[in-house]
Amino acid sequence: MTIGLIAVTAAGRAAAADLAAAWPDARIMAGSAREGVAEAFSTCDGLVCFLAVGATVRLVAPLLADKQNDPGVVCVDEARRWAVALVGGHEGGANALAGRVAATLGSTAVVTTASDAVGATALDGFGADIGLRREPRGDVAAVGAALLSGQPIELRTDQVWPLPPLPANIRPGPPAEATEPGWPLICVTDRADRPAQEADRAAARPGPATGDQVEPTVPHTGPTVVYRPPSLVVGIGASRGAPAEEIDELVNAALGGAGVSPLAVRHLATADIKREEPGIVAVARRRALPLVTYPAAALAAVDVPTPSEAVRAAVGTPSVAEAAALLGPDGHRASRAYLLVTKLVGAHATVAVARHQARGRLALVGLGPGARDLLTARAAMELARASVVIGLDQYLASVRDLLRPGTTILASGLGDEEARAHSAVDHARAGHAVALVGSGDAGVYAMASPTLEYADGSFDVVGVPGITAALASAALLGAPLGHDHALISLSDLHTPWSAIERRVRAVAAADLVVAFYNPRSRTRTWQLPRSLELLGEHRKDDCPVGIVRDAFRPAQQVTVTNLGALDEQALTSLVTMTTTVVVGNSHTRVVAGRMVTPRGYRWA
Description:
Blueprint: E1 3-7, H1 10-22, E2 26-28, H2 33-43, E3 46-50, H3 53-60, E4 72-76, E5 82-87, H4 94-105, E6 108-110, H5 114-118, E7 133-134, H6 140-149, E8 153-157, E9 170-172, E10 185-188, E11 205-206, E12 213-214, E13 224-228, E14 232-238, H7 244-258, E15 265-271, H8 278-286, E16 291-294, H9 296-300, H10 309-315, H11 321-326, E17 337-345, E18 349-356, E19 360-366, H12 377-385, E20 388-392, H13 393-399, E21 408-412, H14 417-429, E22 433-438, H15 448-452, E23 459-464, H16 469-477, E24 478-479, E25 485-489, H17 497-510, E26 513-517, H18 527-536, E27 544-549, E28 557-562, H19 568-574, E29 579-583, E30 589-591, E31 594-596
Parallel strand pairs: 1-2, 1-3, 3-4, 5-6, 8-9, 8-10, 10-13, 14-15, 15-16, 19-22, 19-23, 20-21, 20-22, 24-31, 25-26
Antiparallel strand pairs: 4-5, 7-13, 11-12, 14-18, 17-18, 26-29, 27-28, 27-29, 30-31
Helix pairs in contact: 7-8, 17-18
């Protein structure tokens, strides 16, 4: 991806230079504004113009072709106050580009597309992040108008895909209100003849939350938008010098014979030894598809219907086309893939087509310590992208405004961690886009660990880091974690106290700074005093201790003290379950009221 930057004034050039320095994919266009816009429009994926909106409109107007292919254009004013998505809102990426500019320059993104204005799913970019490609023919305007007006719209899919949240007016099956076959339809399928006439009623579609199959009962003739999912992989085997035209014709024959759309092809696949075969490379380039290659050993491990000993002798595997079509991204046979087209043989090449079942998506999202401005942009994006969001009720309440209309929210109370983990896995396994949220970082004393224990590889997992309690507390205390340190939870709910005590003793003997999580509750009152006693066997009374309650929340309280001052009364008044206790090592000092652990450049 390349972003062209166009500026003509001193302030504009300074802002463009700041973006160019921050973005490795951005470049400042040379020449006049007209020359820069013209070159960027033909060579870049997006344009950021540090010009007035009117001037930019006049420059880009003669260059506009269609919304499917035009790059996104964003205007930024001289004072960097506004980043205006001008054209190419969804498909050209201008809306996302405006947000990116705003995040870098401290501007406010201005997005005026109707779906964004009401927080609804946009049809232009619907499912783009999971590879859905919209058929050029189709009535986007009519279906989009129905979407925004709240008119019932049917959703018809071949299988459950991890789609973004959908408004309530998008429903599986024909609308109950329909009295004639003219309702709007959104269809997600790799079948080339879908949606067809009444003969298409055998096609299956997912139910609202379970993926249950629902049969159409009413023929459809209304406005339709069709999306092609990345469900197909085309495997190619070829002898040396195989002509690109022959390979291309075989691919067309295979897809046409199977009745599937070329837009649903995820990638072409072949053997490593053929990664630079000119004919295969040319076909991949011609079709704008990635070419994925696999070692012969991985291909040989795949059971195929038509193996060939001659192929084994030549390339070390009895199958290239069929095996390559069936392999997943990890180089192993995809568990939910099957051949639509077995080996189709030409004079110099072979082609096979496999359909890969959709994979759900589970995002493990850390919300940080609680302050909204410490929640990462990626976490906010994942929350808006998920169709099912699961978490502790109080955490979900804090981010409910970031969830899009149509999101299924599954909140539960304290103590339901196991149920939340199972629910997240079950929904992801069923094919949905799921976000499981937690405070701090999801992988640190939070939900990622118990959830991933149940993962079986049937869905994709995305980790979204968050600012941990230890990091948030350290930032308030100064720099207590400036050298080696450890994190220890003092909760013995899941870990025997004997194991916790061994770890505290080891940290004490190793002279590590330690941050204690879960230091106290209504029923656990002696574990922290005992831990401080163990540390005191190796550290002096003046060893600094930082106590942070409710970091970056309204009730925040920060205390810097020392081991010798922490008697039972002090601990009772300062430490709660929402507190993090940081104990320094023998080199930690208090400097101007802040804890500092030297990195080792200068030891006192």
